[in-house]
From TrEMBL:
<feature type="transmembrane region" description="Helical">
    <location>
        <begin position="12"/>
        <end position="33"/>
    </location>
</feature>
<feature type="domain" description="DUF7305">
    <location>
        <begin position="382"/>
        <end position="520"/>
    </location>
</feature>
<protein>
    <recommendedName>
        <fullName>DUF7305 domain-containing protein</fullName>
    </recommendedName>
</protein>
<keyword id="KW-1133">Transmembrane helix</keyword>
<keyword id="KW-0472">Membrane</keyword>
<feature type="region of interest" description="Disordered">
    <location>
        <begin position="345"/>
        <end position="365"/>
    </location>
</feature>
<feature type="compositionally biased region" description="Gly residues">
    <location>
        <begin position="354"/>
        <end position="363"/>
    </location>
</feature>
<dbReference type="InterPro" id="IPR055729">
    <property type="entry name" value="DUF7305"/>
</dbReference>
<keyword id="KW-0812">Transmembrane</keyword>
<dbReference type="Pfam" id="PF23981">
    <property type="entry name" value="DUF7305"/>
</dbReference>
């Protein structure tokens, strides 16, 4: 009996222990469930907050892109104008999210404060950012060595390369590969013939033809065809991108080739990189080039077209029209033994022999006083002539500061004559007629490049809209930044051009090389022709 009672008590104790452990396990499970629920809620809130923050960043990113896009199309926009481009309220990338850009204010001159608020379900976050418009020095007109509206033809043996006049004169220790060549009106071709090495990039809104042995050290980009004639050696050291057909009839291309059209590689040709993509048919003569028939090469790369731009952003007809009917010093002829000094304050004339120089009315060259006039966006001392003719042994000296000459008719330098520009001065010539610089013409700037005030040492602007408006046939070097968007520019002879040239069409033959002065890209051509400002980040704060 006792044994039975003792066993019953033992079983009861065991049941009690099991019950206690069961209750403890249940409490532990319930506690864990509550903890998990709290953690899930915390994680959900954190995720909502994180998504809200991402959405606020998206709103600021959209705002930044819209401001940049407006600056590109309207580079003269003020901060007040830019605010109109902001997106306001829009949906975010995450489902159920949206952002708002608001509280736009200008706390200080040159600063724009933007506030972007991101929302995702119950989550919210804010991002405040301060932007500033940062001026970029320079201009967009002389960024390249040779720019033509309707076509470029470079023949002969003249090298096209670059240098920086800010570092001194052109020479072995001052040579660069930034002499870019290009066309800007639709369907305008670039033809490189003879042996005219290009130390830079080539771009064409039409076709690019490399004839003779003219190598290109940079890239080639064409909206149309790229045709490389028969020959040997290196033809293009960079990459080729074009929208038409590609034909390599001789020589080597070092970089990659992407062409939207057909691809042809003739005998003994080479693409060193081994990268060729084409969207049309492929023709490959050499067995080792048959590899390009593979499917991985027959892929249309969808090369974009070369961008077009305004041929005459300065609007030369308007420049001349604004000066119509104003003062005029008549025709000017600087003859043998004439020395004419022009300064911003006035002129002086000396003749050391039996000179036949003539001024207004056909008499001797008189003292002249320039008038202040608004030219190319700048108030400058201006001399104005019906025509300007310099014959053999005539000299014009520019000194004392910035001088502007306006020539309504033709400007010619024939024979051995000199146009000298002092180190502290600059000369701007605006011509309505033809410009002819003959074999003995010497245009010399004692200091090439840009003056401290941003002026170019020697600038030549042409408003002539007929054929062959500028011809340079000299055997001596000339420093000038030439702008002739309405007429043809012809460079011949053996004299090199230091500076830059922009024309309707441009042709160079003989040994006349072009040495692009990279400093010209930093010249001050007025607010209307400067580079668009940069939208710079100044500060930010998360809320």
């Amino acid at each position: 009996m006792r044994i039975h009672a003792q066993a019953s008590r033992q079983r009861g104790a065991v049941l009690l222990v099991v019950l206690v452990f069961s209750i403890m396990a249940t409490l532990l499970v319930v506690t864990n469930l509550k903890d998990n629920l709290v953690q899930e809620r915390l994680a959900g809130n954190f995720q909502k907050q994180l998504n809200a923050r991402y959405t606020a960043e998206q709103g600021m990113y959209e705002s930044y892109n819209r401001l940049k896009a407006k600056l590109k199309t309207h580079p003269k926009s003020t901060l007040e104008n830019l605010k109109d481009a902001l997106p306001g309220r829009a949906n975010g990338k995450v489902r159920g999210s949206h952002f708002e850009t608001r509280n736009h204010r200008i706390p200080a001159p040159g600063l724009l404060m933007l506030a972007s608020r991101g929302h995702h379900l119950e989550g919210a976050a804010g991002l405040n950012v301060a932007f500033a418009l940062q001026a970029i020095p320079g201009n967009e007109i002389y960024e390249d060595a040779v720019v033509a509206c309707d076509g470029i033809s470079l023949k002969g043996s003249g090298t096209i390369d670059s240098y920086d006049s800010g570092k001194g004169a052109y020479g072995d220790n001052n040579k660069g590969r930034n002499a870019n060549v290009g066309t800007i009106s639709a369907n305008a071709d670039v033809i490189l013939d003879g042996h005219s090495p290009i130390e830079g990039n080539v771009r064409a809104t039409g076709d690019v033809s490399l004839k003779g042995s003219s190598p290109v050290s940079g890239n080639v980009h064409a909206s149309g065809d790229v045709i490389i004639s028969s020959g040997s050696g290196l033809r293009v050291d960079g990459n080729i991108r074009n929208g038409g057909d590609f034909s390599l009839n001789g020589g080597i291309v070092s970089g990659s080739v992407h062409t939207n059209g057909n691809a042809l590689m003739d005998w003994s040709t080479e693409i060193s990189s081994g990268e060729l993509l084409y969207g049309g048919q492929g023709t490959f003569r050499d067995d080792e080039d048959k590899v390009f028939e593979g499917a991985d090469h027959r892929v249309n790369p969808n090369v974009p077209e070369v961008a077009t731009s305004s041929c005459d952003p300065i609007n030369m007809p308007e420049v001349m029209a604004k000066l119509a009917g104003t003062f005029n010093d008549g025709p000017l002829a600087v003859a043998a033994n004439d020395v004419l000094d022009l300064t911003p304050l006035g002129s002086s004339h000396e003749n050391t022999g039996n000179g036949k120089g003539k001024g207004k009315g056909g008499g001797p060259i008189p003292p002249m006083t320039p008038r202040k006039a608004d030219v190319l966006g700048d108030k400058a001392p201006v001399y104005r002539f019906d025509s300007l003719n310099m014959s053999s042994n005539g000299i014009i000296n520019i000194s004392g500061g910035d001088v502007t000459l306006i020539v309504d008719g033709d400007f010619s330098m024939a024979g051995d004559n000199k146009l000298n520009i002092a180190e502290d001065s600059s000369l701007t010539i605006i011509v309505g007629g033809k410009v002819s610089l003959g074999a003995g013409a010497k245009v010399t700037a004692q200091k090439e490049g840009i003056r401290d005030n941003g002026k170019i040492a020697m600038s030549l602007y042409s408003a002539y809209d007929g054929a062959d408006g500028i011809t340079i046939s000299g055997a001596t070097p000339i420093y000038a930044a030439m702008y002739a968007p309405l007429t043809d520019v012809k460079l011949s002879g053996s004299g090199a051009l230091y500076g830059a040239v922009r024309g309707k069409t441009i042709s160079a033959s003989g040994g006349s090389g072009i040495h692009y002065d990279e400093a010209l890209g930093l010249a001050d051509l007025g607010e209307d022709h400067g580079k668009p400002p940069l939208l710079a980040l100044r500060d930010w704060l998360w809320l």
